[in-house]
Amino acid sequence: MNAYHALADSYDRLTNDVDYTAVVDFYRQILEKENLQPRTAVDLACGTGSVALLLAKAGMEVTAVDMSEDMLCQANAKAMEEGVPVRFVCQRLERLHLPRGVDLAVCALDSLDYITDPEDCKEAIRRVYKALNPGACFIFDVNTPEKLKAMDGQVFLDEDDDVYCVWRGEFDESTNICTYAMDLFQRRGDVWERSLEEHQEYAYTQKQLTAYLKDAGFTGIAVYADRQFVSPGEGEQRIYFKARKGRVR
Length: 249
Known about the structure:
Elements: H1 11-14, H2 20-33, E1 40-44, H3 50-57, E2 61-66, H4 69-82, E3 86-90, E4 102-107, H5 118-131, E5 132-143, H6 145-150, E6 155-159, E7 163-172, E8 177-188, E9 191-202, H7 206-216, E10 219-225, E11 238-244
Parallel strand pairs: 1-2, 1-4, 2-3, 4-5
Antiparallel strand pairs: 5-11, 6-7, 7-8, 8-9, 10-11
Helix pairs in contact: 2-3, 5-7
């Protein structure tokens, strides 16, 4: 089954420990350091829209992009319930095309790692560059190779009253890909429905992604430890990238 098909209904409940407010606050701190006040933004691989809604509540005009129609349905329902205006678009990042340029692009929660072909990742970054206005900023985070390799052989359990999920990690050194096989049980009235999903992440290095950004034309590239303005240290699990699109002279 495709990633995030069955999981979409339960995604927010299974990830209720994710501090989206802290993630967006780190974006805000980066923007302050860059002396930027973006009016328009795109949330790439937006999932159920948690980051997009926070950006919109901060006063930005937000477009949210994801390849999963199921996740976008959840995101749209949340936006409508909260009365937050967000434009949702179903696109793959390597095919990204926006009708107008934006001042900020973000991609949260290691979503870029889900592009498991490096050539597609390069193209996605090129597309992001094209989608930005001159002087705009691109901020994203990824899981480090150290983290993904350590997932090999690990078994994890997430549950609440209506959903039970067991997932197993396997890292393939030959492909540089970590695969998560997820057994998902969801309560539907008096019946439990079982689904199987497979998720994959490519273990991109800091050097690789920095090269992709430079090749696309980005400048002002900085790499940070997880929501900290320090360089990533040994054993870092998640790192953040900041890059700028140069101004037209």
